[in-house]
Amino acid sequence: MFISSNRVAAWAAALLALTQTPALAFHFGLGNAAAAQGAKVVNKANSEYMAEGNLLVPALPSCGSSMALFTNAPVTDPAFVSFQPVGHVFPPGHTFPADHSYFNFNASSTALEDVNMYAPGNGWVTQVTAYYDNAHGAPSFYNITFAPCAEVKIINLTVNTLASALLHPTGPASTSCSSNTDNNPGVVQSCVTNMEDPVKGGDLLGTGGLVDFGPIIDTRFQISGFINPARHVLDRGFCPIDYFTPNLKASYLATIGGNNGATLITRKIAPLCGTIMQDLAGTAQGDWFFPGASYPPDNAHLALIHHNVDPSTGTFSVGSSIPGFAGSHDFIPKTNSDGSRINYDFSLVTDQQIYCYDTLLIDFVYGAGGADPNYTGRIVLLQMTDTSLDTLKIELQNPGTSCASAAPWSFTSAAVTFQR
Amino acid sequence: MFVRRAVRLGIVAVAALLNLRSAAHAGDSSPNSDAPLYLQIPEGDAGTLAPPTKGHLTEPPAPALPRRFSLGINDLGGQLRFHLNPYWAAEGRYLTGSTSSDVGTVRANVFGVRGYRFFDKRRRLRLYAGLEADYVRTSLASVDTRNNPNSVATLSGFGATSGYALGGFGGIEFRLLKRVALDFDIGPYMIGLKEKVTGVSDATLDFVANTAINVYLF
User: Structural domain of residue B83, as residue ranges?
Assistant: First the structure.
Protein backbone atom coordinates (compact mmCIF):
# COMPACT_ATOMS: atom_id res chain seq x y z
CA MET A 1 0.00 0.00 0.00
CA PHE A 2 1.67 3.20 -1.14
CA ILE A 3 -0.81 5.77 0.03
CA SER A 4 -2.89 5.22 3.09
CA SER A 5 -5.97 7.30 3.48
CA ASN A 6 -4.93 8.11 7.05
CA ARG A 7 -1.65 9.57 5.92
CA VAL A 8 -3.24 11.59 3.18
CA ALA A 9 -5.65 12.92 5.77
CA ALA A 10 -2.78 13.81 8.11
CA TRP A 11 -0.95 15.52 5.32
CA ALA A 12 -4.03 17.47 4.27
CA ALA A 13 -4.67 18.41 7.89
CA ALA A 14 -1.16 19.81 8.21
CA LEU A 15 -1.59 21.86 5.05
CA LEU A 16 -4.98 23.01 6.20
CA ALA A 17 -3.49 24.14 9.51
CA LEU A 18 -0.93 26.18 7.63
CA THR A 19 -3.54 27.83 5.48
CA GLN A 20 -5.50 28.70 8.60
CA THR A 21 -2.60 30.67 10.04
CA PRO A 22 -4.06 34.15 10.35
CA ALA A 23 -1.12 36.03 8.93
CA LEU A 24 -1.02 33.93 5.78
CA ALA A 25 -3.13 34.78 2.78
CA PHE A 26 -4.27 32.10 0.41
CA HIS A 27 -4.08 32.49 -3.35
CA PHE A 28 -5.06 30.25 -6.18
CA GLY A 29 -2.24 30.40 -8.68
CA LEU A 30 1.22 31.81 -8.15
CA GLY A 31 0.56 34.46 -10.79
CA ASN A 32 -2.35 35.79 -8.79
CA ALA A 33 -0.31 35.58 -5.60
CA ALA A 34 2.42 37.65 -7.25
CA ALA A 35 -0.14 40.16 -8.49
CA ALA A 36 -1.58 40.45 -4.99
CA GLN A 37 1.87 41.08 -3.60
CA GLY A 38 2.45 43.65 -6.34
CA ALA A 39 -0.80 45.37 -5.38
CA LYS A 40 0.30 45.36 -1.76
CA VAL A 41 3.58 47.05 -2.65
CA VAL A 42 1.82 49.54 -4.92
CA ASN A 43 -0.68 50.42 -2.21
CA LYS A 44 2.10 50.77 0.34
CA ALA A 45 4.06 53.06 -1.98
CA ASN A 46 0.92 55.05 -2.73
CA SER A 47 0.34 55.60 0.97
CA GLU A 48 3.93 56.46 1.83
CA TYR A 49 4.64 58.77 -1.09
CA MET A 50 2.85 61.31 -3.20
CA ALA A 51 3.55 63.33 -6.30
CA GLU A 52 3.87 67.08 -6.46
CA GLY A 53 3.90 67.55 -10.18
CA ASN A 54 6.77 65.35 -11.29
CA LEU A 55 8.42 65.38 -7.87
CA LEU A 56 8.30 62.35 -5.61
CA VAL A 57 7.85 63.40 -2.00
CA PRO A 58 6.79 61.69 1.21
CA ALA A 59 3.03 61.59 1.62
CA LEU A 60 1.50 64.19 3.88
CA PRO A 61 -0.41 63.02 6.94
CA SER A 62 -4.08 62.38 6.46
CA CYS A 63 -6.54 65.09 7.39
CA GLY A 64 -8.78 62.50 8.97
CA SER A 65 -12.19 64.05 9.44
CA SER A 66 -10.87 67.37 10.68
CA MET A 67 -12.24 70.57 9.17
CA ALA A 68 -10.49 73.05 11.49
CA LEU A 69 -7.29 72.99 9.49
CA PHE A 70 -6.74 76.75 9.19
CA THR A 71 -5.71 78.10 12.57
CA ASN A 72 -4.35 81.48 11.59
CA ALA A 73 -5.63 84.52 9.78
CA PRO A 74 -4.07 84.64 6.33
CA VAL A 75 -4.29 88.44 6.37
CA THR A 76 -4.00 90.68 9.41
CA ASP A 77 -3.67 93.99 7.61
CA PRO A 78 -6.38 96.50 8.62
CA ALA A 79 -7.13 97.07 4.93
CA PHE A 80 -8.71 93.62 4.85
CA VAL A 81 -12.50 93.94 5.04
CA SER A 82 -13.95 90.50 4.46
CA PHE A 83 -14.00 87.42 2.32
CA GLN A 84 -16.39 87.10 -0.58
CA PRO A 85 -18.74 84.10 -0.86
CA VAL A 86 -17.79 81.54 -3.46
CA GLY A 87 -19.85 81.61 -6.64
CA HIS A 88 -18.89 85.03 -7.95
CA VAL A 89 -19.22 85.33 -11.73
CA PHE A 90 -17.10 87.40 -14.05
CA PRO A 91 -17.60 86.16 -17.61
CA PRO A 92 -16.12 84.88 -19.74
CA GLY A 93 -13.35 83.57 -17.43
CA HIS A 94 -15.78 82.95 -14.60
CA THR A 95 -19.03 82.31 -16.46
CA PHE A 96 -19.88 79.55 -14.03
CA PRO A 97 -19.88 80.37 -10.30
CA ALA A 98 -16.25 80.78 -9.30
CA ASP A 99 -14.87 77.98 -7.17
CA HIS A 100 -13.01 80.31 -4.82
CA SER A 101 -13.42 83.24 -2.51
CA TYR A 102 -11.78 86.65 -2.77
CA PHE A 103 -10.13 89.01 -0.32
CA ASN A 104 -12.12 92.24 0.02
CA PHE A 105 -9.84 95.17 0.76
CA ASN A 106 -10.59 98.79 1.48
CA ALA A 107 -7.41 100.56 0.55
CA SER A 108 -5.64 102.03 -2.39
CA SER A 109 -3.84 99.71 -4.75
CA THR A 110 -0.56 101.21 -3.59
CA ALA A 111 -1.32 100.37 0.02
CA LEU A 112 -2.25 96.84 -0.97
CA GLU A 113 1.30 96.28 -2.18
CA ASP A 114 2.35 96.06 1.47
CA VAL A 115 -0.30 93.56 2.57
CA ASN A 116 1.25 90.33 3.79
CA MET A 117 -0.19 86.86 3.33
CA TYR A 118 0.50 84.33 6.04
CA ALA A 119 0.15 80.57 6.15
CA PRO A 120 -3.39 79.85 7.39
CA GLY A 121 -2.18 76.88 9.41
CA ASN A 122 0.57 74.37 9.91
CA GLY A 123 1.24 72.52 6.72
CA TRP A 124 3.33 72.50 3.61
CA VAL A 125 3.77 74.72 0.60
CA THR A 126 3.69 72.18 -2.18
CA GLN A 127 3.91 74.34 -5.27
CA VAL A 128 4.94 77.86 -6.26
CA THR A 129 4.35 79.12 -9.77
CA ALA A 130 6.20 82.23 -10.87
CA TYR A 131 4.62 84.25 -13.69
CA TYR A 132 6.77 86.45 -15.89
CA ASP A 133 5.70 89.40 -18.00
CA ASN A 134 9.24 89.43 -19.30
CA ALA A 135 11.06 86.16 -19.75
CA HIS A 136 14.34 87.78 -18.74
CA GLY A 137 13.02 89.79 -15.83
CA ALA A 138 11.81 89.08 -12.31
CA PRO A 139 8.49 87.32 -11.80
CA SER A 140 5.46 89.60 -11.88
CA PHE A 141 3.61 87.53 -9.31
CA TYR A 142 3.45 84.09 -7.77
CA ASN A 143 0.78 81.46 -7.18
CA ILE A 144 1.15 79.43 -3.99
CA THR A 145 -0.38 76.06 -3.13
CA PHE A 146 -0.68 75.30 0.57
CA ALA A 147 -1.66 71.89 1.96
CA PRO A 148 -2.42 71.43 5.66
CA CYS A 149 -2.63 67.65 5.15
CA ALA A 150 -2.89 65.04 2.45
CA GLU A 151 -6.46 65.45 1.26
CA VAL A 152 -6.86 69.22 1.43
CA LYS A 153 -5.08 72.01 -0.35
CA ILE A 154 -5.78 75.61 -1.15
CA ILE A 155 -4.42 76.77 -4.47
CA ASN A 156 -3.99 80.03 -6.36
CA LEU A 157 -2.88 82.14 -3.37
CA THR A 158 -1.35 85.03 -5.28
CA VAL A 159 1.39 87.34 -4.05
CA ASN A 160 3.62 89.80 -5.83
CA THR A 161 6.66 89.08 -3.70
CA LEU A 162 7.46 85.61 -2.44
CA ALA A 163 8.74 85.04 1.08
CA SER A 164 12.47 84.33 1.01
CA ALA A 165 11.96 80.99 2.75
CA LEU A 166 9.92 79.81 -0.22
CA LEU A 167 12.44 81.05 -2.73
CA HIS A 168 14.89 78.57 -1.26
CA PRO A 169 12.90 75.54 -0.10
CA THR A 170 14.65 73.26 2.36
CA GLY A 171 13.54 69.95 0.88
CA PRO A 172 13.68 68.51 -2.60
CA ALA A 173 12.30 70.78 -5.29
CA SER A 174 11.86 70.58 -9.00
CA THR A 175 11.31 73.54 -11.32
CA SER A 176 10.09 73.49 -14.88
CA CYS A 177 9.34 76.50 -17.07
CA SER A 178 7.01 76.81 -20.01
CA SER A 179 5.06 79.30 -22.06
CA ASN A 180 1.90 78.44 -20.18
CA THR A 181 0.25 81.67 -19.00
CA ASP A 182 -2.81 80.23 -17.23
CA ASN A 183 -4.77 82.95 -19.07
CA ASN A 184 -3.09 85.70 -17.09
CA PRO A 185 -2.94 88.86 -19.23
CA GLY A 186 0.57 89.97 -20.08
CA VAL A 187 2.24 86.82 -18.88
CA VAL A 188 4.70 85.26 -21.33
CA GLN A 189 6.21 82.50 -19.24
CA SER A 190 5.62 80.58 -16.04
CA CYS A 191 7.89 78.44 -13.92
CA VAL A 192 6.38 75.79 -11.66
CA THR A 193 8.39 74.69 -8.65
CA ASN A 194 7.10 71.57 -6.94
CA MET A 195 8.24 71.14 -3.37
CA GLU A 196 7.18 70.03 0.06
CA ASP A 197 8.32 72.90 2.23
CA PRO A 198 6.95 72.84 5.79
CA VAL A 199 5.47 76.06 7.15
CA LYS A 200 3.81 76.95 10.42
CA GLY A 201 0.58 78.82 10.78
CA GLY A 202 1.34 82.52 10.59
CA ASP A 203 4.57 82.15 8.61
CA LEU A 204 4.91 84.75 5.90
CA LEU A 205 4.12 83.41 2.44
CA GLY A 206 4.43 86.62 0.46
CA THR A 207 3.41 90.23 0.09
CA GLY A 208 1.12 92.23 -2.17
CA GLY A 209 -1.12 91.18 -5.01
CA LEU A 210 -3.61 89.25 -2.90
CA VAL A 211 -6.78 88.51 -4.88
CA ASP A 212 -8.17 84.97 -4.66
CA PHE A 213 -8.63 82.91 -1.52
CA GLY A 214 -8.99 79.40 -2.87
CA PRO A 215 -10.11 77.24 -4.52
CA ILE A 216 -10.11 74.56 -1.89
CA ILE A 217 -9.58 71.02 -3.15
CA ASP A 218 -10.70 68.41 -0.66
CA THR A 219 -10.60 64.85 -1.92
CA ARG A 220 -12.59 63.66 1.11
CA PHE A 221 -15.80 65.11 -0.25
CA GLN A 222 -17.66 65.57 -3.50
CA ILE A 223 -19.98 68.41 -4.38
CA SER A 224 -23.37 66.93 -5.10
CA GLY A 225 -26.39 68.16 -6.98
CA PHE A 226 -25.03 68.88 -10.43
CA ILE A 227 -27.45 67.67 -13.09
CA ASN A 228 -24.55 66.39 -15.16
CA PRO A 229 -21.83 65.57 -12.59
CA ALA A 230 -19.49 64.19 -15.22
CA ARG A 231 -18.93 67.72 -16.51
CA HIS A 232 -17.65 69.04 -13.19
CA VAL A 233 -14.68 68.63 -10.86
CA LEU A 234 -16.53 67.51 -7.79
CA ASP A 235 -13.79 67.74 -5.16
CA ARG A 236 -12.99 71.38 -5.87
CA GLY A 237 -14.81 74.56 -4.92
CA PHE A 238 -15.60 74.12 -1.24
CA CYS A 239 -16.01 77.16 1.00
CA PRO A 240 -12.55 78.10 2.36
CA ILE A 241 -14.12 79.68 5.44
CA ASP A 242 -15.35 76.24 6.53
CA TYR A 243 -11.73 75.18 7.06
CA PHE A 244 -10.96 77.76 9.77
CA THR A 245 -11.14 77.09 13.48
CA PRO A 246 -14.59 77.90 14.92
CA ASN A 247 -13.70 81.37 16.20
CA LEU A 248 -12.08 82.50 12.97
CA LYS A 249 -14.89 80.93 10.93
CA ALA A 250 -17.55 82.77 12.92
CA SER A 251 -15.64 86.00 12.58
CA TYR A 252 -15.28 85.68 8.83
CA LEU A 253 -18.87 84.57 8.24
CA ALA A 254 -20.10 87.63 10.14
CA THR A 255 -18.58 89.87 7.52
CA ILE A 256 -18.70 87.72 4.42
CA GLY A 257 -20.02 89.57 1.39
CA GLY A 258 -19.05 91.98 -1.35
CA ASN A 259 -17.27 95.28 -1.13
CA ASN A 260 -18.85 97.98 -3.26
CA GLY A 261 -16.23 100.67 -3.11
CA ALA A 262 -16.07 101.58 0.54
CA THR A 263 -19.33 99.80 1.39
CA LEU A 264 -19.46 96.25 2.63
CA ILE A 265 -22.56 94.38 1.45
CA THR A 266 -22.84 91.25 3.56
CA ARG A 267 -24.53 88.08 2.40
CA LYS A 268 -27.51 87.29 4.59
CA ILE A 269 -28.95 84.21 2.91
CA ALA A 270 -27.65 80.74 3.72
CA PRO A 271 -25.32 79.23 2.88
CA LEU A 272 -23.42 82.36 3.88
CA CYS A 273 -20.27 81.21 2.16
CA GLY A 274 -22.12 80.71 -1.11
CA THR A 275 -22.02 77.73 -3.39
CA ILE A 276 -20.79 76.91 -6.84
CA MET A 277 -23.56 74.36 -7.42
CA GLN A 278 -26.82 76.05 -8.35
CA ASP A 279 -28.29 73.44 -10.71
CA LEU A 280 -31.95 72.72 -10.07
CA ALA A 281 -33.26 69.73 -11.98
CA GLY A 282 -36.41 70.32 -14.01
CA THR A 283 -35.83 74.06 -14.12
CA ALA A 284 -33.72 76.51 -16.10
CA GLN A 285 -31.56 77.28 -13.08
CA GLY A 286 -27.89 76.35 -13.13
CA ASP A 287 -25.03 75.71 -15.51
CA TRP A 288 -25.59 75.30 -19.26
CA PHE A 289 -22.95 74.08 -21.67
CA PHE A 290 -22.45 75.23 -25.25
CA PRO A 291 -22.41 72.09 -27.39
CA GLY A 292 -18.97 71.09 -28.58
CA ALA A 293 -17.10 73.62 -26.47
CA SER A 294 -14.57 72.35 -23.96
CA TYR A 295 -14.79 72.90 -20.23
CA PRO A 296 -12.77 74.22 -18.60
CA PRO A 297 -12.51 77.03 -19.54
CA ASP A 298 -15.90 78.59 -18.82
CA ASN A 299 -15.77 80.95 -21.77
CA ALA A 300 -18.33 79.46 -24.16
CA HIS A 301 -20.98 78.56 -21.62
CA LEU A 302 -23.92 80.04 -19.75
CA ALA A 303 -25.09 80.15 -16.13
CA LEU A 304 -28.61 81.10 -15.03
CA ILE A 305 -28.07 81.56 -11.33
CA HIS A 306 -28.40 83.76 -8.27
CA HIS A 307 -25.94 86.42 -7.18
CA ASN A 308 -23.26 85.21 -4.78
CA VAL A 309 -23.64 88.23 -2.44
CA ASP A 310 -27.42 88.71 -2.70
CA PRO A 311 -28.97 85.42 -3.77
CA SER A 312 -32.38 87.09 -4.11
CA THR A 313 -31.00 88.62 -7.30
CA GLY A 314 -31.07 86.62 -10.52
CA THR A 315 -28.01 86.63 -12.74
CA PHE A 316 -27.44 85.89 -16.41
CA SER A 317 -23.76 84.94 -16.58
CA VAL A 318 -23.10 84.80 -20.29
CA GLY A 319 -19.93 83.66 -21.99
CA SER A 320 -19.06 84.29 -25.59
CA SER A 321 -21.61 82.17 -27.46
CA ILE A 322 -24.71 84.37 -27.62
CA PRO A 323 -24.58 87.12 -30.25
CA GLY A 324 -24.75 90.57 -28.65
CA PHE A 325 -25.17 89.18 -25.17
CA ALA A 326 -22.14 88.74 -22.91
CA GLY A 327 -21.06 89.39 -19.37
CA SER A 328 -22.89 89.28 -16.08
CA HIS A 329 -26.41 90.78 -15.94
CA ASP A 330 -28.58 90.88 -12.87
CA PHE A 331 -32.34 91.21 -12.58
CA ILE A 332 -34.94 91.21 -9.84
CA PRO A 333 -36.80 87.92 -10.31
CA LYS A 334 -40.40 87.11 -9.55
CA THR A 335 -40.47 84.37 -6.97
CA ASN A 336 -44.09 83.40 -7.65
CA SER A 337 -45.64 82.49 -10.97
CA ASP A 338 -48.19 85.11 -12.06
CA GLY A 339 -48.89 83.68 -15.50
CA SER A 340 -46.93 86.38 -17.30
CA ARG A 341 -43.68 84.34 -17.75
CA ILE A 342 -41.83 87.66 -17.47
CA ASN A 343 -38.73 87.98 -15.23
CA TYR A 344 -39.46 84.69 -13.50
CA ASP A 345 -36.85 83.32 -11.17
CA PHE A 346 -34.99 80.61 -13.08
CA SER A 347 -36.28 78.05 -10.61
CA LEU A 348 -39.82 78.82 -11.84
CA VAL A 349 -39.00 78.04 -15.45
CA THR A 350 -40.16 74.45 -15.43
CA ASP A 351 -41.77 73.76 -18.81
CA GLN A 352 -41.25 74.17 -22.54
CA GLN A 353 -42.86 77.61 -22.88
CA ILE A 354 -40.96 80.76 -23.82
CA TYR A 355 -40.01 83.07 -20.92
CA CYS A 356 -38.99 86.71 -21.25
CA TYR A 357 -36.64 88.93 -19.25
CA ASP A 358 -36.20 92.70 -19.38
CA THR A 359 -34.84 95.45 -17.11
CA LEU A 360 -31.36 94.02 -16.88
CA LEU A 361 -29.25 95.60 -14.14
CA ILE A 362 -25.63 96.48 -13.63
CA ASP A 363 -23.92 94.24 -11.07
CA PHE A 364 -24.58 96.07 -7.83
CA VAL A 365 -21.39 94.90 -6.17
CA TYR A 366 -18.90 95.92 -8.82
CA GLY A 367 -20.84 98.76 -10.42
CA ALA A 368 -23.26 101.50 -9.61
CA GLY A 369 -26.25 99.17 -9.78
CA GLY A 370 -29.55 100.14 -11.36
CA ALA A 371 -30.76 99.54 -14.90
CA ASP A 372 -28.07 98.84 -17.43
CA PRO A 373 -28.34 101.58 -20.09
CA ASN A 374 -26.72 99.32 -22.65
CA TYR A 375 -29.72 97.01 -22.51
CA THR A 376 -32.60 99.48 -22.48
CA GLY A 377 -35.40 98.17 -24.68
CA ARG A 378 -33.82 94.77 -25.04
CA ILE A 379 -35.31 91.50 -23.93
CA VAL A 380 -33.95 88.02 -23.35
CA LEU A 381 -36.02 85.01 -24.39
CA LEU A 382 -35.37 81.54 -23.13
CA GLN A 383 -37.08 78.21 -23.58
CA MET A 384 -36.31 74.65 -22.60
CA THR A 385 -37.02 72.86 -25.82
CA ASP A 386 -37.22 69.18 -25.01
CA THR A 387 -39.31 67.11 -22.68
CA SER A 388 -36.33 66.15 -20.53
CA LEU A 389 -35.71 69.87 -19.97
CA ASP A 390 -31.98 69.54 -20.59
CA THR A 391 -31.77 71.69 -23.71
CA LEU A 392 -32.13 75.46 -23.52
CA LYS A 393 -32.65 77.98 -26.29
CA ILE A 394 -31.79 81.61 -25.53
CA GLU A 395 -31.66 84.83 -27.54
CA LEU A 396 -31.16 88.54 -26.90
CA GLN A 397 -33.61 90.61 -28.95
CA ASN A 398 -33.98 94.35 -29.40
CA PRO A 399 -37.66 95.14 -29.84
CA GLY A 400 -37.15 98.56 -28.26
CA THR A 401 -39.74 97.84 -25.66
CA SER A 402 -40.54 95.63 -22.68
CA CYS A 403 -41.38 91.94 -22.56
CA ALA A 404 -45.07 92.68 -22.07
CA SER A 405 -45.20 94.94 -25.08
CA ALA A 406 -43.15 92.61 -27.25
CA ALA A 407 -45.48 89.64 -26.76
CA PRO A 408 -46.11 87.22 -28.38
CA TRP A 409 -42.49 86.14 -28.31
CA SER A 410 -40.73 84.01 -30.83
CA PHE A 411 -37.13 83.10 -31.54
CA THR A 412 -35.19 84.01 -34.61
CA SER A 413 -32.31 82.19 -36.26
CA ALA A 414 -29.98 84.05 -33.87
CA ALA A 415 -31.12 81.89 -30.97
CA VAL A 416 -28.42 79.72 -29.38
CA THR A 417 -28.90 76.31 -27.81
CA PHE A 418 -27.18 75.04 -24.68
CA GLN A 419 -27.27 71.71 -22.90
CA ARG A 420 -26.99 70.45 -19.37
CA MET B 1 5.29 35.57 15.70
CA PHE B 2 3.52 34.26 12.64
CA VAL B 3 6.82 33.26 11.05
CA ARG B 4 7.58 31.06 14.06
CA ARG B 5 4.14 29.52 13.79
CA ALA B 6 4.54 29.04 10.08
CA VAL B 7 7.90 27.34 10.55
CA ARG B 8 6.43 25.07 13.21
CA LEU B 9 3.51 24.16 11.01
CA GLY B 10 5.87 23.73 8.07
CA ILE B 11 7.81 21.16 10.06
CA VAL B 12 4.56 19.35 10.74
CA ALA B 13 3.84 19.31 7.02
CA VAL B 14 7.29 18.04 6.10
CA ALA B 15 7.09 15.39 8.80
CA ALA B 16 3.78 14.25 7.43
CA LEU B 17 5.28 14.13 3.98
CA LEU B 18 8.32 12.13 5.10
CA ASN B 19 6.08 9.79 7.03
CA LEU B 20 4.12 9.26 3.86
CA ARG B 21 7.30 8.64 1.90
CA SER B 22 8.58 6.01 4.34
CA ALA B 23 5.19 4.39 4.23
CA ALA B 24 5.44 4.26 0.48
CA HIS B 25 8.83 2.54 0.66
CA ALA B 26 7.56 0.13 3.28
CA GLY B 27 4.86 -0.76 0.85
CA ASP B 28 7.52 -2.11 -1.58
CA SER B 29 7.76 -5.34 0.43
CA SER B 30 4.08 -5.75 0.90
CA PRO B 31 2.70 -9.04 -0.38
CA ASN B 32 0.03 -7.06 -2.05
CA SER B 33 2.58 -5.09 -4.01
CA ASP B 34 2.02 -4.91 -7.72
CA ALA B 35 5.80 -5.18 -8.38
CA PRO B 36 6.68 -8.10 -10.72
CA LEU B 37 8.34 -11.20 -9.30
CA TYR B 38 11.69 -12.23 -10.74
CA LEU B 39 13.43 -15.53 -10.77
CA GLN B 40 16.38 -15.34 -8.33
CA ILE B 41 19.58 -17.36 -9.03
CA PRO B 42 21.10 -18.57 -5.75
CA GLU B 43 24.75 -17.66 -5.06
CA GLY B 44 27.51 -20.29 -4.84
CA ASP B 45 26.43 -23.84 -4.28
CA ALA B 46 23.51 -22.96 -2.11
CA GLY B 47 21.14 -24.78 -4.43
CA THR B 48 20.45 -26.06 -7.87
CA LEU B 49 18.37 -24.24 -10.41
CA ALA B 50 15.72 -26.56 -11.74
CA PRO B 51 13.20 -25.92 -14.47
CA PRO B 52 9.63 -25.66 -13.41
CA THR B 53 7.64 -28.77 -13.55
CA LYS B 54 4.78 -27.00 -15.32
CA GLY B 55 4.72 -24.19 -17.87
CA HIS B 56 7.86 -22.46 -19.06
CA LEU B 57 10.20 -19.66 -18.02
CA THR B 58 9.65 -16.24 -19.48
CA GLU B 59 11.63 -13.04 -19.27
CA PRO B 60 10.22 -10.47 -16.90
CA PRO B 61 8.40 -7.63 -18.68
CA ALA B 62 10.64 -4.70 -19.55
CA PRO B 63 9.95 -1.58 -17.44
CA ALA B 64 7.91 1.08 -19.23
CA LEU B 65 10.03 3.70 -20.85
CA PRO B 66 9.73 6.94 -18.89
CA ARG B 67 8.06 9.71 -20.76
CA ARG B 68 10.66 12.36 -20.22
CA PHE B 69 8.94 15.54 -21.38
CA SER B 70 5.55 16.85 -20.43
CA LEU B 71 3.98 20.08 -21.54
CA GLY B 72 1.41 21.69 -19.29
CA ILE B 73 -1.09 24.45 -18.97
CA ASN B 74 -1.16 25.91 -15.47
CA ASP B 75 -2.96 28.81 -13.85
CA LEU B 76 -2.90 31.35 -16.67
CA GLY B 77 0.43 30.15 -17.98
CA GLY B 78 2.42 27.23 -19.20
CA GLN B 79 5.12 24.81 -18.11
CA LEU B 80 7.58 22.33 -19.56
CA ARG B 81 8.70 19.45 -17.35
CA PHE B 82 11.70 17.19 -17.84
CA HIS B 83 11.73 13.89 -16.00
CA LEU B 84 15.25 12.90 -15.01
CA ASN B 85 13.92 9.51 -13.94
CA PRO B 86 10.61 8.23 -12.61
CA TYR B 87 11.16 10.01 -9.30
CA TRP B 88 12.83 13.30 -10.10
CA ALA B 89 11.84 16.05 -12.50
CA ALA B 90 12.69 19.63 -13.26
CA GLU B 91 10.34 22.17 -14.73
CA GLY B 92 10.38 25.63 -16.26
CA ARG B 93 7.16 27.58 -15.91
CA TYR B 94 5.53 30.86 -16.70
CA LEU B 95 2.45 32.21 -14.96
CA THR B 96 0.40 35.36 -15.09
CA GLY B 97 -2.11 36.93 -12.76
CA SER B 98 -3.88 40.15 -12.03
CA THR B 99 -5.67 41.93 -9.23
CA SER B 100 -6.81 45.42 -8.43
CA SER B 101 -4.92 47.93 -6.31
CA ASP B 102 -5.87 51.33 -4.94
CA VAL B 103 -4.72 53.01 -8.13
CA GLY B 104 -5.28 50.49 -10.90
CA THR B 105 -4.93 46.92 -12.06
CA VAL B 106 -1.72 45.08 -11.20
CA ARG B 107 -0.64 42.45 -13.71
CA ALA B 108 2.02 39.90 -12.80
CA ASN B 109 4.41 37.81 -14.88
CA VAL B 110 6.21 34.96 -13.14
CA PHE B 111 9.15 33.06 -14.61
CA GLY B 112 10.25 30.13 -12.52
CA VAL B 113 11.81 26.72 -12.12
CA ARG B 114 10.63 23.79 -10.07
CA GLY B 115 12.26 20.66 -8.78
CA TYR B 116 10.00 17.64 -8.20
CA ARG B 117 10.33 14.48 -6.17
CA PHE B 118 7.64 12.02 -7.19
CA PHE B 119 6.58 9.11 -5.08
CA ASP B 120 5.37 5.72 -6.20
CA LYS B 121 2.21 5.55 -8.17
CA ARG B 122 -0.94 3.98 -6.86
CA ARG B 123 -3.55 3.40 -9.47
CA ARG B 124 -3.89 6.80 -11.14
CA LEU B 125 -2.42 8.87 -8.31
CA ARG B 126 1.12 9.99 -7.57
CA LEU B 127 2.13 12.23 -4.72
CA TYR B 128 4.92 14.70 -5.20
CA ALA B 129 6.76 17.44 -3.38
CA GLY B 130 9.28 20.01 -4.42
CA LEU B 131 10.77 23.45 -4.35
CA GLU B 132 10.28 26.45 -6.61
CA ALA B 133 12.16 29.65 -7.35
CA ASP B 134 10.75 32.43 -9.53
CA TYR B 135 11.54 35.84 -10.91
CA VAL B 136 8.48 38.06 -10.61
CA ARG B 137 7.59 41.25 -12.42
CA THR B 138 4.43 43.28 -12.04
CA SER B 139 3.13 46.33 -13.82
CA LEU B 140 0.29 48.76 -13.26
CA ALA B 141 -2.45 49.21 -15.83
CA SER B 142 -5.70 51.16 -16.01
CA VAL B 143 -4.34 53.76 -13.59
CA ASP B 144 -7.08 55.79 -11.97
CA THR B 145 -6.04 58.80 -9.89
CA ARG B 146 -9.23 60.81 -10.24
CA ASN B 147 -9.77 60.76 -6.50
CA ASN B 148 -6.22 61.78 -5.73
CA PRO B 149 -4.47 63.96 -8.30
CA ASN B 150 -1.38 63.93 -6.07
CA SER B 151 -1.20 60.17 -6.10
CA VAL B 152 2.27 58.83 -6.69
CA ALA B 153 0.62 56.82 -9.47
CA THR B 154 0.65 60.00 -11.57
CA LEU B 155 4.42 59.65 -11.85
CA SER B 156 5.73 58.02 -15.00
CA GLY B 157 6.80 54.43 -14.46
CA PHE B 158 5.16 54.04 -11.09
CA GLY B 159 3.80 50.62 -10.28
CA ALA B 160 6.48 48.50 -11.93
CA THR B 161 7.86 46.03 -9.41
CA SER B 162 10.26 43.15 -9.60
CA GLY B 163 11.42 40.52 -7.18
CA TYR B 164 11.26 36.87 -6.32
CA ALA B 165 9.05 34.05 -5.19
CA LEU B 166 10.45 31.10 -3.28
CA GLY B 167 8.33 28.24 -2.10
CA GLY B 168 7.85 24.62 -1.30
CA PHE B 169 4.91 22.54 -2.32
CA GLY B 170 3.32 19.18 -1.95
CA GLY B 171 0.70 17.81 -4.26
CA ILE B 172 -0.87 15.03 -6.15
CA GLU B 173 -0.90 14.03 -9.79
CA PHE B 174 -3.99 12.32 -11.16
CA ARG B 175 -3.54 10.50 -14.46
CA LEU B 176 -6.64 11.30 -16.47
CA LEU B 177 -5.53 9.50 -19.60
CA LYS B 178 -2.47 7.57 -20.63
CA ARG B 179 -0.61 10.75 -21.50
CA VAL B 180 -2.65 13.38 -19.69
CA ALA B 181 -2.46 14.17 -15.99
CA LEU B 182 -3.98 16.73 -13.68
CA ASP B 183 -1.68 18.23 -11.03
CA PHE B 184 -2.71 19.98 -7.87
CA ASP B 185 -0.31 21.21 -5.24
CA ILE B 186 -0.19 23.66 -2.43
CA GLY B 187 2.50 25.19 -0.29
CA PRO B 188 3.99 28.24 1.37
CA TYR B 189 5.65 30.83 -0.83
CA MET B 190 7.67 33.85 0.18
CA ILE B 191 7.09 36.61 -2.38
CA GLY B 192 9.20 39.75 -2.23
CA LEU B 193 8.79 42.72 -4.58
CA LYS B 194 10.27 46.20 -4.88
CA GLU B 195 8.58 49.14 -6.57
CA LYS B 196 11.01 50.86 -8.91
CA VAL B 197 10.06 54.55 -8.61
CA THR B 198 9.70 54.78 -4.84
CA GLY B 199 11.94 51.91 -3.79
CA VAL B 200 9.20 50.62 -1.51
CA SER B 201 9.48 46.87 -0.97
CA ASP B 202 7.67 44.17 0.89
CA ALA B 203 7.97 40.43 1.33
CA THR B 204 5.10 38.24 2.44
CA LEU B 205 4.65 34.56 3.19
CA ASP B 206 1.49 33.38 1.45
CA PHE B 207 -0.11 30.07 0.81
CA VAL B 208 -0.48 29.25 -2.86
CA ALA B 209 -2.38 26.50 -4.61
CA ASN B 210 -1.38 25.57 -8.15
CA THR B 211 -3.07 23.44 -10.73
CA ALA B 212 -1.94 22.24 -14.13
CA ILE B 213 -2.90 19.88 -16.88
CA ASN B 214 0.14 18.03 -18.21
CA VAL B 215 0.50 16.20 -21.47
CA TYR B 216 3.31 13.61 -21.47
CA LEU B 217 4.93 13.94 -24.84
CA PHE B 218 7.77 11.42 -25.14
Answer: 68-146+156-218
